[in-house]
Design a protein that fits this description.
The protein is built from six helices and two strands, in the order H-H-H-E-H-H-H-E. The chain is mainly alpha-helical and 143 residues long. The protein has one domain. Helix 1 crosses helix 2 and helix 2 crosses helix 4. It is globular and about 60 Å long.
């Protein structure tokens, strides 16, 4: 079956699930290391904490976007990030999408709310990066 634009409910459900996955990643990859480092007097402070957070999430998202086009949450909801022409993301395009997602979410979620008015239910950072999220329903096995 061909890829199609996702429904808004599917897109937002995937986003909610992604939040749960990110919580686990931050617990293991951010909080625990900071606790251990602080116990030895080496804990990061101030802007360095933000750099740690930014790089950890960048590694997570870009790795999955470039290796299959799906994070765990997207795989569950049968969503995939592709180039505007349907091809896999290019590395710089994945970085641009990640960088554009930060202000898109931080500015009161305007980039997420954009999906409510977008005809294909795409996020603002997808429009900026020239990417799109598609729904790929599972193919039924041949009888």
């Amino acid at each position: 079956m061909a890829a199609q634009a996702p429904g808004l409910a599917r897109l937002l459900s995937s986003l909610l699930y992604e939040g749960l996955v990110i919580f686990g990643i931050l617990l293991v990859g951010f909080l625990f290391p900071q606790i251990v480092l602080t116990a030895f007097g080496l804990g990061a402070q101030g802007k360095l904490l933000w750099v740690h957070l930014f790089l950890l999430l960048m590694f997570y998202f870009i790795w999955f976007w470039l290796h299959g086009g799906q994070t765990l949450a997207m795989k569950t909801w049968k969503l995939r990030i592709v180039n505007a022409d349907g091809s896999p993301l290019r590395p710089l395009q994945a970085v641009l999408r990640y960088m554009a997602a930060w202000p898109s979410v931080a500015c009161l979620g305007i980039g997420i709310l954009w999906a409510l008015v977008d005809r294909e239910h795409q996020y603002l950072h997808d429009r900026i990066a020239g990417t799109r999220i598609v729904f790929e329903p599972a193919e039924r096995p041949a009888a």
